[in-house]
Amino acid sequence: MMAKNFNDKTILLTGATDGIGRLTALKLAERGANLILHGRDKDKLDETIKETSKKSGSNKIKGVIADFSCLDEVRIMAEDIKDRYQELNVLINNAGAGFSAPRYGKDGYELRFEVNYLAPFLLTHLLLPLIKKSTPSRIVNVSSAGQRKLNFNDIMMKDSFDPVYAYAQSKLALIMFTIDLAAKLRGQDITVNALHPGTYLNTKMVREAGINPWGDPASGADAEVYLALSPELDRVTGKYFNVDKETLADSQAYNAQARQRLWHLSLGLTNLNGKQYEDS
Ligand SMILES: NC(=O)c1ccc[n+]([C@@H]2O[C@H](COP(=O)([O-])OP(=O)(O)OC[C@H]3O[C@@H](n4cnc5c(N)ncnc54)[C@H](OP(=O)(O)O)[C@@H]3O)[C@@H](O)[C@H]2O)c1
Hints:
Layout: E1 10-13, H1 19-30, E2 34-39, H2 42-56, E3 61-65, H3 71-84, E4 90-93, H4 111-132, E5 137-142, H5 163-184, E6 190-196, H6 204-208, H7 217-229, E7 240-242, E8 245-247, H8 256-270
Parallel strand pairs: 1-2, 1-4, 2-3, 4-5, 5-6, 6-7
Antiparallel strand pairs: 7-8
NADP nicotinamide-adenine-dinucleotide phosphate binds near residues 17, 44, 94, 144 and 199.
């Protein structure tokens, strides 16, 4: 059983201003959690907080801002959270950029690799000291069933750019990170899992890619809430879920050498020293 009631938990949800994230925010607010909602646009974030507070009746919703295509903004956001909060029980890395987003972000990195993978890699590391103080805690990484093997020779796809491949590569990277981080945190009462929230759910990302949506984003929000809060998953870590069923990811996720290569590449690209997961 989880030690805390939902209404004692502090949850950070990234990409809360639209689609699956926005619906997840409402479901979590209805359960009474202390919510930190992330957005990249202040007006849209304020409007999301206002609507979510009104619909849920919660007065425990606050916001943080960062464009994930700029790692310095992620660093400032993490500092802001560490200054303002004493604990963080759940981190849901939901924000994501799709096929139709621009090729490069503010830092000049391939945008999907940065927003969908490097930013949550960095944010999670920077928040680990707070997450460790708040056990039992969970990290939920919103990946996708669309996965492609990482092209280590050209991870930013400078030579040949394919936005669908770039998206799928970033999502597999997030699963590889999930597996490694779970192993590094084993025994510390912090679980780390990844999920595919559903296929072509009707969200901005899917519509902007010109895809005819297949499903309701509310089902994706249910899956995120399940991974974030379900007591059944108290001891489950390092796994990948297709919606709410544990399954296997692309085979590269289980290649320890590939994961180690990605880990070192990521520490370099984010200027981290990799010590954040060690016992302090
Ligand atoms: N929809 C699906 O069928 C599906 C399938 C598999 C996986 N997923 C994953 O589910 C997650 C949620 O996606 P969604 O379908 O709900 O898409 P969405 O409606 O487009 O929402 C994406 C969220 O991420 C935020 N975001 C995008 N680029 C950002 C950036 N540069 N910096 C900070 N935040 C940024 C958006 O902010 P704004 O509101 O400002 O745009 C929005 O809050 C994503 O990780 C996505 O890859 C979705």
